[in-house]
Amino acid sequence: MARQTRRAVLAALGSGIAATAGCGAFGRERVDVLVAGSLQKAASETLQAQTDVELAVEARGSVQAARLVADGKRDPAIVALADPALFDRVMDAAWHAVVASNEMVLAYNPETDGGTRVAAAEPWYGPLRTGSVSLGRTDPSLDPLGYRTLFTLDLAADYYDEPDLADAVLSPDQTYPETQLLAQFETGAVDAAFVYRSMAVERDYPFREFPPEIHLGDPAQAEQYQTASYELPNGTILTGSPIEYGAVRRAAAESARTAFEAVLSGDWLAPHGFTVRQTYPRLVGDVPSTVTR
């Protein structure tokens, strides 16, 4: 593992493989960027405003995004995912940069009866257990938010001594694509949803916070988080860990380097509710020599 200061990372530009680039509007260079669903607004708005190149942003669940690249169905210049482990496990990338953190919360719609029950409930999971609240979450086979929701419930079961909590709360009809999850509030399809703090902050929805032992956002609780696990359909066992976001640059073009420099700064993430620690960006793996130098 290689680590560099923020200044050193931003001053250095690494090499990469060929990836999609072109000319965008008004003659600006275009850079194709594939991001996690929870990064869509931050990338399309704030990151775009902080770089002179035109970003063509596509958002998917992180697992799905990594698979699209691994299968050759997408060839983005930059990939930013909600779980850095996917760069190795799915994409087989030689390196990546960790750029931000987040935590799990339970967002609710204050305009619905179910949402008001979540707001007033003690403990927070009471209305979820009784089925008096329609709940939304994402598919754990498609994105990290989905399996982190399961980790959160697993950890909550131990924390509150409610061993059947997940079974009581979850049902197959609750899953939505990450990019559409909170939009279900507007249609009235759900009263509450397990989301990242950043997602609730962006849409200005109120939310219930969880203790550090549960919310997956405290590095000091890493050992506790590891007690939660989930088995993917392919048999891979995932274990809980502090939430982090990672990014990698796959193109050598100057436009891609310029855009990636903005990605590494982290300045595009903090206004959207992400946590950008002083230790970020953290470089991991066989980082190109022009970055590690």
TrEMBL record:
It comes from the Archaea. This is ABC transporter substrate-binding protein. Pfam families: SBP_bac_11. InterPro entries: ModA/WtpA. Belongs to the bacterial solute-binding protein 1 family. WtpA subfamily. One of its GO terms (molecular function) is molybdate ion binding. GO terms for biological process: molybdate ion transport.
